[in-house]
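call fold(seq) -> tokens
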Amino acid sequence: MSPEQMRMARAALGWGVRDLAEKAGVTANTVTRIENGADAKRSTLDAIQASFETAGIEFIPENGGGQGIRFRLRKDGTREEH
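ret:
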């Protein structure tokens, strides 16, 4: 999960920095620092990514066409959002 993907995921969910921080159990300052490119502990990044995934976000790795995010789809093809 890159800083750009974090910003994309927050925007897709309509979450502010404080919303993500609360859901991940970190400070808003930590979220801002990571989004600005600062290093973070693996456990912090895992908590943030888990918060997004619980909300239905999937991370798309770099595959030659860029990296991104998307909403996870249910088997019936509808978006999975929480």
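The two ends are 20 Å apart (CA to CA).
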